Amino acid sequence: MRAVTWQGTEHVSVETVPDPILQQPTDAIVRITSTAICGSDLHLYSVLGPFMTPGDIIGHEPMGIVEEVGSEVTGVRPGDRVVVPFTISCGHCAMCGQGLPSQCETTQVTERGTGAALLGYSKLYGQVPGGQAEHLRVPHADYGLMKVGTELPDDNYLFLSDILPTAWQAVQYAGVPAHRTLAVIGLGPVGQLSARIGRHLGARVFGIDPVPERRAMAERHGIEVLDLNEDAVGEIRERTQGRGPDAVVDAVGMEAEGSPVAGLAQTLAGKLPDAVAQPLMERAGVDRLAALHTAIDLVRRGGTVSLSGVYGGAASPMPLLTMFDKQLQLRMGQCNVRVWTDALLPLVEDPEDPLGVGDLVTHRLPLEEAAVGYDLFQRKHDGCIKVVLDPTIASAPTTP
């Protein structure tokens, strides 16, 4: 089959690789019909190279058609149309039972000290082949695979694999709807959806991003947008009686702009031999924290900061005096996808499209054009906000 493979820092290529096969009786094989490039994929692309091996199949936002199931899989059968969550979870261990499948004890990558294994996401999370491919092996298919209808296009359902439940969890962790004002820092795909979810749940939502196309998209959905270069913090305070919003979602994470020293450290670590870079990043890694520090500064006293952007630094400095003095609540964590998808399914099937999933994808490309998609997404060229790869087409790249 054809699959997107990591070949080095900022270098992916589509290669012919062996077809996946059933390895466990709880596995399923899915033929992929759509698979998206996630902002987290850019971390593999440019920052987390020391944890990658050339040839790794990447991608963790797929959906498709079940082609084969193991002998113990009863929840889906060949021919079913399914979404594949990016977390690999059993559904029956103590952590899954507590609503924390992202910490699944069956698939935890204990040798790395991390939570549940993830599709296509480096040695840190199990080095499981990912979903930017023509076919995908899905472990623990009974719990993981989500059956969906056959009438609506893939784009209605695809984001249930990751970014939509990630955004929903971020807003739930932010305390909306009890909190009535919400700021979202970063209007990439997760930030867009977080802002729209906040509006859907009744909050007044502010969105901050330096990219005009992202601000324009958010504004179409009733978000009050501000340029990062403006005095966004001061302006939002003015609009919230001088206090700041009740809650802030940081939808940026480790690759924030405005952190030159940390950015240089990440770049240098990525150029070191893996044997040196891996322990350095695990024990002394420092993130770009501009977005997080802005969130802490912006939120009102007694408010909540919710992190959906991924951070990976082990030694990132935090303004604990300010956090303590402002009496903040900080919530974060890998998304517990299957906890939220049942609530989200009616919303993505609603003809009114209350979360605007039909207004997110800016570029649809054949799988073979994955390298183009990664470059567009990373550099934010051509108004790129969200890229979907289609393994079923071989035509030239198109935009919706």
UniProtKB/TrEMBL annotation:
The keyword Oxidoreductase applies. Residues 189-254 form the Alcohol dehydrogenase-like C-terminal domain. Keywords: Metal-binding, Oxidoreductase, Zinc. InterPro entries: ADH-like_C, ADH-like_N, ADH_Zn_CS, GroES-like_sf, NAD(P)-bd_dom_sf. One of its GO terms (molecular function) is oxidoreductase activity. It comes from the Bacteria. Its cofactor is Zn(2+). This is Glutathione-dependent formaldehyde dehydrogenase. Residues 25-142 form the Alcohol dehydrogenase-like N-terminal domain. Belongs to the zinc-containing alcohol dehydrogenase family. It comes from Brachybacterium paraconglomeratum. The keyword ATP-binding does not apply. Coiled coil: none annotated.
